[in-house]
Amino acid sequence: MVNVMEAPEGVTAQEHGAARIVVDEPRCIGAGQCVMVAPDLFDQRDEDGIAVVLRDEPRSDELPAAREAAALCPAAAIRLVRGSGA
């Protein structure tokens, strides 16, 4: 997990250049921890439970939940990456 900088309130992390959420779908096991801690950022596909990113550019107030989702993922399938690169 990447330690990202805080963006000003109401500014997306992407606009601030801080972070973008990336899910490694083949690695995801569908445990759903991400959805439980960050339901505004993640959902799961109905057919197989694989995590889906709802908004890959979290607002500054959503960064703690995005970090927690990455930390709790049992398959380590969620990453926060700096800027616009993957």
TrEMBL record:
UniProt keyword Iron present: yes
Pfam families named among the record's database cross-references: Fer4_13
Swiss-Prot/TrEMBL cofactor(s): [3Fe-4S] cluster
SUPFAM superfamilies: 4Fe-4S ferredoxins (SSF54862)
Domain 4Fe-4S ferredoxin-type stretches: 19-47
Keywords assigned: 3Fe-4S, Electron transport, Iron, Iron-sulfur, Metal-binding, Transport
Keyword Metal-binding listed: yes
Known function: Ferredoxins are iron-sulfur proteins that transfer electrons in a wide variety of metabolic reactions.
The protein's name: Ferredoxin
